[in-house]
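Q: How would the structure tokens look for this protein?
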Amino acid sequence: MSFLSTLPSRIAAARAKRKGPPPCSCALPPPRKKGASAVARLSGAWRGAVLPIAAIAIWAVVSALHLVKSGLLVSPLAVLQTGWQQTLSGALLRALSASLAREASGFVIGTVGGLLLGSLLGFSRIARRVVGPSFDTFKQISLFAWIPLISVWFGLGDAAKVVFLSLAALLPVTAHTCDGIHAVPRSYIEVARAFRYSRLQLITHVILPAALPSIFTGIYLALIYSWLATLGAEYLLVSGSGIGNLLIDGSEQFRMDLVLFGIIVVGLTGWALNALARAIERAVFARRPARAS
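A: Here is the predicted structure in token form.
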């Protein structure tokens, strides 16, 4: 069979190939309702509120039936009244603002130092060999073991507490920044070098964006650790006002209503900080595709 005799069939096959595959006969999925995701989020929020509501209900029943001595467990209504009094008198605002100011100062100082130190350990082999072993040893020391030394060097005021909170934020940010830089796939770097990226372009356009999820994890943990360390510092470095001092005052005066109210405020504040960090993280990562395009 000659080439010319097969030419019509070749042309027909080429045209069919150019037209593309036959249309799919599968039915399209039904359109998603816009309010479905909102309803799902609302139902998920209600499911998360089941356990706190049940705990408050059990607490109210136990206190109403006097199953526990009233001096050890007060009623939810007494805690609510104490919280209202603390709010009207301004004591809650003063204590919470003092604790959050310390937490913010220590968080910012520790995060900036952690980003710098983690980047140094991630990019410099010399720093990793010289400083890396010392940092790995430093991580194994309990954070509260530094309080006696900090109290001697900086006293019992806000300066000592901020130093303590800075250490609490420094460790996770440094570790996750360094690990995120090391975890960047080698193929990314090879492609960037093939496109003749400079050292600065390689860092700013390839390595740091790829390491950003790990860096955000370190910052998120630093926010949590610094808030927890705020209460520890106010417990152990007793000087000035704060939520920790509010709990201490309630314990010394044997006022369980004040203690329980302080615990609730600590939990709600931690929840708010957690939600704020998650919202910022979602906003930052939602903008990345737009920038990349």
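The chain has 13 helices and no strands.

Residues 199-236 form the longest helix (38 residues).

Upvote if useful.
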